[in-house]
Structure formats: structure tokens, C-alpha cells
């Protein structure tokens, strides 16, 4: 039985992203991004009005005892046309934010791309154009020039799988393209942007450079209750195919400088290989200092010969994405804390030298809002169960340096808008009033004692039990 205490110096904080909280979409010279232009994208304003209220938000984090804050920089605030003319007023905002954080004793972690591509670049092909990767490197350099004296750790991209395949495959996210070829080409150009951006950051003196990936274990329905269940050969093949598309497509180029062997024929069939140039994988595979892991939920699949490909997973014909009778969040995502352990075990086994950070973990639930508080026992249980699993993973040797909750505030959940609640802090969007939820108070105690209390999670799930 492991202790519930975390190692000394363990990093505790939260993550946010620019489009989801800042608002002020046309302010101080900001150019439009693909999310401003996307149908429903006007949701991005006022969001949490963080552009004006950041001092209050930093104070909230400080009062909760947080030592880290991961935010994203809006590319089109810095470079309104995506390239060329620099907008100093936009950089000034991040300058003020970073100073405010440092003054509160909070370490800033900057993400350069959390899905909000400048619309001007989209008009020139966006991520389907190779040039966008080079423009990203320029943007990385310009931003580092201004903030690099105070921001040590830089993440290039957030969740390139989502940006490529939900943005260009299923089209649920901006820019709303629906083309398997575009999705694979965009994915490659994002990987290249990571490589070129990392290089630019390093050559301008950044001390630590990383990338953030959404990683999910891929399981069969039976494995959800018991990881040890051996899938049939057909199901194992389905699992491997989805695992390659979702996880290995990004992990292996970045950490090994190569494509998964079983992916190349899929890319070639769907998109050709003309977009992959000699030397690209060397650039993409240069060493990084830190891998950010976003973990929310497992993906559950099985073989079903008649199934058509899911547009977010081109090449997935014959595979059924299963909904399973298990506890889910309000978004319907299966709750499986043990999935985090599967992700960490695999990374620890295959990439023992890579330093890790949980850069996002959290859940959307319907909160009980009353006069005396915001009661969100489901969120607290979700977070606590994941932290217990994380604590056990540390004992197994996982090199996880910190944990960041998604998210500080209820905010704009992309295509879903304001109805989704991931915050530790409730936001009344009519008044912009912030109120701490019970989970925020619980998290403050976790941070204060650098660990969990002795109580078991309030609502143990079948999956937690299975993971032991
Ligand atoms: C993150 O995306 C984002 O970084 C953040 O901006 C967002 O607000 C937050 O999470 C909450 O959504 O079921 O096939 O899509 C998380 C996106 C959701 C992607 C779960 C992977 C599982 C595979 N992830 N998803 S699938």
C-alpha cells in the first residue's frame, strides 16, 4: 500500500487555453483565429474575460496554493496575420500575465499552440500547407524573445491528434475540414511545426521544451472491467490499429524519430507520402525535455466487419467504437482512473528517460449550484481517484513531475460552448463572478498536505477496483 503523500517539490496546478478563457477576441490588435471564424466560434467572446480579469484569476490560484499554471499564447494576438507584423500590444498581455504569476509565486508553463490558428494562415492552406510549420517556428521565436527571460518551460503544441483529426477529419472542430488526406497531412505538418518550433525555442535559449499529447489506452469492452482479459485476434487487431492512430502516430515520431511501421501504409493510402520530406523525422525526433500527458478517458473498441471508418480515425473501417455500461462524465466519457496507470506504465517502459507531467486531467459534471456553495462531489471523486492512481504510478517508477487539473475555470468547451463545466472555479457568465467549487477547496488541501487524505474516494468505481 503506497503512501498518499507525493514527492517533495511535486508540482501542483491547473491548465487553461487562450481561446477558452480570454475573450477580447478583437482587442488590442488581435487578428482572428480559425475558432473566431468557425460557426459557434463567437462563443469565444467574452469567455471568462480573462484578458481583463487575469489578476483575479492569478489571485485565485495563489490562494489555492498552486505552484504552476499552464496557459496558451494566442498566435494571432502576437502575429495578427500569423506571420510578419508583430503586435506588441498582444505580447504585452502575456508579459503582464507572466509578471503577475511570478509575483504570486506561480511558475508559468506556456503552450504555443492550443488549436487557435490565425485565420490568415488558414486562408493560405492552414495545416495542410507545409509553410505553416515554418511560420510556427517564427512565432515561437518572437514569443520566446519577449517572455523567455521569465518563462522556462515551453510546450509547442497541445494535442495534435485532436487538432488534426477532429479539425480536419471529422470536422467537428475548426477549421471544419472533412478529409482523411487533409487530416494526415495536417498531422505531419503539426509534428514538423513541433520539431522546427522546438529548435527555434532552443536556439533562442529556452531551458526546457516539450509537447503535450492526448494519450488514451485503447481497450476492448471486456478489458474495461479487467485489463488482464485477452482479446480475440480480431479485437486485438482493432485495438492496435486505433492505438497507432491515436497514440503512436505522435509519440513515436517525437520520441523515436520514426513513424510506426503499421501507420505508413495507411498514410500512403489515404494521403500519399509526398508531404513527408527527407529529414523531417530527424527534425521531429530531436530530444525533448518534457512530455506533457493529457489523460481523460480510455477508448473502447472491438472488431465489427460491417463498421464504416470513423472520420476522426481514417483507416478504422471494420472497427466499432463501443459505448460501455460504466460510469461516465456528463460528456459521456467513461471514467477509468486505471487508464492513467496504463498510459504511464507504457511510457515508463518504452521511454524510461523521458520526464513526464500530467498537463491535463479533469471532468465535466453537472454541478449543484446553491447559495452556500458549488457542490461537485463527482469532480472531487474523479480527481481524487486519478491522483491515487498517479501516486501508485510514481511508486512504480513513472517520472511524473507534476499534475495540472483541467481546468481552473468553467470556460468555452470548443464546439460545445458554455454548457460544459470543467472548472474548479464556477463562473457565472452573466456577471463574470467567480466562486470556488468544493473541488477547489479539496484541491487546496491536497496541495497543502502535498498528498491525499486518508479517506477513500467517495465513489469508488468498478474501474478503480479493476486497476488494482
Ligand atoms: C482537452 O481535449 C483539451 O486540451 C481542452 O482544451 C479541452 O477543453 C479539454 O480537454 C476537455 O475536453 O473519444 O475518440 O475522441 C481532450 C480531448 C477527449 C481527445 C477524449 C481524446 C478520446 C478519444 N480528448 N478523446 S475520442
From TrEMBL:
Its EC number is 3.2.1.21. Coiled coil: none annotated. GO terms for cellular component: cytosol. GO terms for biological process: cellulose catabolic process; regulation of DNA-templated transcription. It comes from the Bacteria. It is an enzyme of class 3 (hydrolase). Substrate binds at residues 20, 114, 158, 296, 406, 413-414. GO terms for molecular function: beta-glucosidase activity; DNA binding. The active site is at 159 (proton donor), 360 (nucleophile). It catalyses: Hydrolysis of terminal, non-reducing beta-D-glucosyl residues with release of beta-D-glucose. Keywords: Carbohydrate metabolism, Cellulose degradation, DNA-binding, Glycosidase, Hydrolase, Polysaccharide degradation, Transcription, Transcription regulation. Belongs to the glycosyl hydrolase 1 family. This is Beta-glucosidase.
Amino acid at each position: 500500500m503506497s503512501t498518499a503523500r507525493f514527492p517533495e517539490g511535486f508540482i501542483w496546478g491547473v491548465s487553461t487555453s487562450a481561446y477558452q478563457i480570454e475573450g477580447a477576441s478583437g482587442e488590442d490588435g488581435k487578428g482572428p483565429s480559425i475558432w473566431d471564424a468557425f460557426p459557434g466560434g463567437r462563443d469565444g467572446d467574452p469567455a471568462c474575460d480573462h484578458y481583463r480579469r487575469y489578476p483575479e484569476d492569478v489571485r485565485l490560484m495563489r490562494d489555492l496554493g498552486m505552484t504552476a499554471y499552464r496557459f496558451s499564447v494566442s498566435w494571432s494576438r502576437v502575429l495578427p496575420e500569423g506571420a510578419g507584423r508583430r503586435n506588441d500590444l498582444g505580447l504585452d498581455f502575456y508579459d503582464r500575465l507572466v509578471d503577475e504569476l511570478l509575483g504570486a509565486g506561480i511558475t508559468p508553463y506556456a503552450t504555443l499552440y492550443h488549436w487557435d490558428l490565425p485565420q490568415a494562415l488558414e486562408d493560405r492552406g492552414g495545416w495542410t500547407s507545409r509553410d505553416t510549420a515554418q511560420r510556427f517556428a517564427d512565432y515561437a521565436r518572437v514569443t520566446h524573445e519577449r517572455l523567455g527571460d521569465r518563462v522556462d518551460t515551453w510546450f509547442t503544441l497541445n494535442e495534435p491528434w485532436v487538432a488534426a483529426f477532429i479539425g480536419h477529419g471529422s470536422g467537428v472542430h475548426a477549421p471544419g475540414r472533412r478529409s482523411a488526406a487533409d487530416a494526415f497531412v495536417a498531422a505531419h505538418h503539426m509534428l514538423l511545426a513541433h520539431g522546427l518550433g522546438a529548435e527555434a525555442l532552443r536556439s533562442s535559449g529556452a531551458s526546457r521544451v516539450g509537447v503535450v499529447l492526448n494519450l488514451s489506452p485503447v481497450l476492448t469492452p471486456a478489458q474495461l472491467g479487467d485489463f488482464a482479459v485477452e482479446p480475440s485476434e480480431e479485437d486485438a487487431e482493432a485495438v492496435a490499429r486505433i492505438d497507432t492512430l491515436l497514440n503512436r502516430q505522435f509519440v513515436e515520431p517525437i520520441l523515436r524519430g520514426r513513424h510506426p511501421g503499421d501507420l505508413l501504409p495507411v498514410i500512403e493510402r489515404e494521403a500519399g507520402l509526398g508531404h513527408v520530406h527527407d529529414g523531417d523525422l530527424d527534425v521531429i525526433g530531436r530530444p525533448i525535455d518534457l512530455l506533457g500527458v493529457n489523460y481523460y478517458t480510455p477508448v473502447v473498441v472491438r472488431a465489427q466487419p460491417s463498421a464504416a471508418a470513423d472520420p476522426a480515425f481514417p483507416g478504422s473501417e471494420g472497427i466499432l467504437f463501443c459505448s460501455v455500461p460504466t460510469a461516465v462524465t456528463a460528456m459521456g466519457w467513461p471514467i477509468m482512473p486505471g487508464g492513467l496507470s496504463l498510459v504511464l506504465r507504457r511510457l515508463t517502459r518504452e521511454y524510461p528517460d523521458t520526464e513526464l507531467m500530467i498537463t491535463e486531467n479533469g471532468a465535466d459534471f453537472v454541478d449543484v449550484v446553491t447559495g452556500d456553495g458549488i457542490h461537485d462531489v463527482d469532480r472531487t471523486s474523479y480527481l481524487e481517484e486519478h491522483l491515487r492512481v498517479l501516486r501508485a504510478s510514481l511508486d512504480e517508477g513513472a517520472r511524473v513531475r507534476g499534475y495540472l487539473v483541467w481546468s481552473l475555470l468553467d470556460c468555452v468547451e470548443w464546439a460545445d460552448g458554455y454548457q460544459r463545466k470543467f472548472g474548479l472555479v464556477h463562473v457565472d457568465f452573466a456577471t463574470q463572478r467567480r466562486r470556488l467549487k468544493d473541488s477547489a477547496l479539496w484541491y487546496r488541501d491536497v496541495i497543502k498536505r502535498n498528498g491525499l487524505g486518508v479517506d477513500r474516494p467517495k465513489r469508488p468505481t468498478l474501474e478503480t477496483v479493476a486497476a488494482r
